[in-house]
Amino acid sequence: xxxLIEELNSRLPAERIQTDPDVVAAYGQDRAIFERGxxxxxxxxxxxxxxxxAAVKAAVAANAIIVPRGAGxxxxxxxxxxxxxxxxxLHNMTDVIEVDPVNRMARxxxxxxxxxxKAAVAAxxxxxxxxxxxxxxxxxxxxxxxxAGGLCCVKYGVTRDYVMGLEVVLANGDVIRTxxxxxxxxxxxxxxxxxVGSEGLLGIITEVTVKLEPAPPPPATAVAYFxxxxxxxxxxxxxxxxxxQPTVMEIIDRASLEIVERFFPMDxxxxxxxxxxxxxxxxxxxxxxxxxxxxxxxxxFVYHAADPHxxxxxxxxxxxxxxxxxxxxxxxxxxxxxxxxxxxxxxxxGIVEIAERHDVFIPTIGHAGxxxxxxxxxxxENDEDELARVKQAFTDIVELSLSLGGxxxxxxxxxxxxxxxxEQEVEPTxxxxxxxxxxxxxxxxxxNPGKAL
Length: 453
Ligand SMILES: Cc1cc2nc3c(=O)[nH]c(=O)nc-3n(C[C@H](O)[C@H](O)[C@H](O)COP(=O)(O)OP(=O)(O)OC[C@H]3O[C@@H](n4cnc5c(N)ncnc54)[C@H](O)[C@@H]3O)c2cc1C
Prior knowledge:
Blueprint: H1 4-9, E1 17-18, H2 21-26, E2 42-44, H3 49-61, E3 66-69, E4 86-89, E5 96-100, E6 105-108, H4 114-122, E7 126-127, H5 140-146, H6 153-156, E8 163-169, E9 175-179, H7 191-195, E10 204-211, E11 213-214, E12 220-226, H8 229-241, E13 248-253, H9 254-263, E14 274-280, H10 287-296, E15 301-305, H11 308-319, H12 321-327, E16 331-334, E17 337-338, H13 344-358, E18 364-367, E19 372-379, H14 384-403, H15 422-425, H16 428-441
Parallel strand pairs: 2-4, 3-4
Antiparallel strand pairs: 1-2, 5-6, 6-10, 7-11, 8-9, 8-10, 12-14, 12-15, 13-14, 13-18, 16-19, 17-19, 18-19
Helix pairs in contact: 8-10, 8-13, 9-12, 13-14
Bound molecules: flavin-adenine dinucleotide (FAD).
């Protein structure tokens, strides 16, 4: 058995292998704030499936751990280096292999950035819906491995709903193709579904076949201010109870409105408890109907616009929350919990109560139509007392979500950040089955051990 570097050198071109500690370190940390990456031995950046196979076989020969990495925009530590590991970065595999307008699908390499996939299919009049806010940075492979969500999930669903098939390099270097190209198939078990959201634990995704939609017409947009979180929650429930279908339904709480107005003044009503921002496809769902439900449920101000440019400007409030929080020049820890829509008011009110109880600044934005909230804990990392209060508030929000029948990780994944809460959500027999599946695919614990499960 050679060293990992010797095994890699014997199988791959030298330019795919990086050992410069600064370069390797730059790829060893995702965007999770509390989760610190270890020190990887090497960074490998393959250009093809064959090169991924070669890298995996080198790791097997040297008995080394592999951490797959897309663009490193994850928020849970899932792509963080483990001491002595091989970081396997897919960022050079960015080809659009095929766009097929007849069958409404595309085949791409995993390092392709989401926005580049959207642009490639838009040239054919087609639409790839999943739209995490990291759309301009995150890779399709990473989106699949985390089952990423975004703003449009309320109508279109999450990444899982658009993955038709995968090519995967397994932990021993074997290559499998999962899924189908036909719209229907009942052959065998759904291994594609198993790999979606698997956080690099089961195999390395080297090709993704995605389902596409016809490009929708420009959306119409509505905004509604509410003086109470509870009435906003009731309006959200009424919209769905009445069979209406927004394409986007976001909520921005008072603390978020205040920081946006402070750093990007745009005449926001900061006395409101929250703002609900909605979009719809006018031909399917008149925006006036969504606005009317908000009025009926006590909104203090409602406005709607058919003009897509005006709609874009209204969406700016939502887009500016994170940049405004960054202007506070403090550390930011985004939460990611979800409850069913009927429990949303309790979740929102509970988050406000937790913020007050622990004296932590927590502006909250979220995908209101999905019940998925992103409270953003803002704090000074050097203040030990505040840090302790932040960690407790973070835990309390997770436990609040669980107590309301919700989930600890709606769209960002588990990684290392949420692993301590896993057993509170997944019951023991179910978790044991999941760990057996991991052991079946990866008996030597080579792929991203210590993450997610
Ligand atoms: C500003 C910002 C906004 C964000 N907004 C959203 C949002 O709205 N919705 C949302 O869901 N997420 C959001 N995220 C989180 C993040 O962008 C997503 O989790 C994204 O899917 C990660 O993609 P990535 O390419 O960066 O993957 P990485 O961070 O590199 O990896 C994530 C996980 O996937 C695994 N992985 C990556 N590529 C592969 C592969 N080819 N094969 C096997 N495993 C692989 C890694 O091992 C790791 O476990 C946001 C992040 C930021 C920084």
